[in-house]
Inverse folding.
């Protein structure tokens, strides 16, 4: 009588092992691959929340501004900036005190800027995934 009982136990143990191992395999198949963001080219508008960060040396402390947006692809050769979906954070480089003062009014708010030049971040000190070197604020009428 021990033979049938042992056979049933081993069969039950095998079924339990298969049942416990299967869900992780199904979960991996169910996750869709992240899609790359829509492209952003010169002349396009980038919108998102504007954040201010302090950067640089203490003697030359300059405000650094960053827009957090949906993922966007950059034009070639930058592409996705070594990310699966493209960058989501864009540093706005200010070229004058007037530009810095203009951005200061929008910190913590939604802002839209017309992008003229954008590239992937390459310097170790940059806190964004992409850098917008030439831009202008788009005002809503």
């Amino acid at each position: 009588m021990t033979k049938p009982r042992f056979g049933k136990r081993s069969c039950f143990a095998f079924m339990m092992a298969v049942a416990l191992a299967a869900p992780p395999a199904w979960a991996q198949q169910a996750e869709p691959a992240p899609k790359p963001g829509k492209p952003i080219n010169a002349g396009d508008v980038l919108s998102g929340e504007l954040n201010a960060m302090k950067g640089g040396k203490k003697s030359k402390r300059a405000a650094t501004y960053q827009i957090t947006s949906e993922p966007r692809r950059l034009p070639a050769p930058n592409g996705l900036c070594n990310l699966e979906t493209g960058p989501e954070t864009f540093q706005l480089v200010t070229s004058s005190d007037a530009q810095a003062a203009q951005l200061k009014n929008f910190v913590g708010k939604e802002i839209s800027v017309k992008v003229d030049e954008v590239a992937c971040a390459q310097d170790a000190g940059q806190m964004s995934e992409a850098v917008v070197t030439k831009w202008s604020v788009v005002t809503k009428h």
The chain has two helices and seven strands. The mean pLDDT is 76. The two ends are 87 Å apart (CA to CA).
